[in-house]
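Internal ticket #5521
Category: modeling
Description: The requester needs a full-assembly model to guide mutagenesis choices. All entity lines are attached below as received. Residue total reported by intake: 226.
Assigned to: D.W.
Attached entities:
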Amino acid sequence: GAGVSQSPSNKVTEKGKDVELRCDPISGHTALYWYRQSLGQGLEFLIYFQGNSAPDKSGLPSDRFSAERTGGSVSTLTIQRTQQEDSAVYLCASSLGESGNTIYFGEGSWLTVV
Amino acid sequence: KQEVTQIPAALSVPEGENLVLNCSFTDSAIYNLQWFRQDPGKGLTSLLLIQSSQREQTSGRLNASLDKSSGRSTLYIAASQPGDSATYLCAVKIQGAQKLVFGQGTRLTINP
């Protein structure tokens, strides 16, 4: 596709339910990032994938959060047993390889836990 | 730990003015610095990327500078327009890591 695609764009879920957020990066981009942006807060790094290397999971806030990237392309961020504090915009980004390349963001998935 | 600060948090100026947004970072061991724009309810749009070996980058009415030794970057917007109203974020990619560290952003309003 022309840009980073995320789905769903909006999700309202009940506390305790699991949610899956999907990211389809720009074709050919080997690096993929997940960030979280809470209301009035800055962007918080969650996880980074690069090719077939082991992901950098250092930003995941708890073991309720996990992410995978299948076939080096599409990624899914899963939040188990959602809590109200998980309400945020989850932004996915991709770039061409590592290091010095421009990073392109998707429109985000707006998650509301009620 | 790398920290990125953007001042001011909000800025309102009349249309047509030239303006400067500031970004500072605490650790000069960066790989690059990127400026983004975020419109309400939208994702981030990349504006300019400056590698650590570069001093500035220009795109249209935008010019970004980088002084790595002093830990500062500025985004200069010439002849501002109402369509420039948005939140502007700077982010640094630190050496030895792949994640970007973001500032809190400057919310810019250009008044017609």
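Resolution: model delivered.
Comment from assignee: The radius of gyration of chain A is 13 Å.
Ticket closed.
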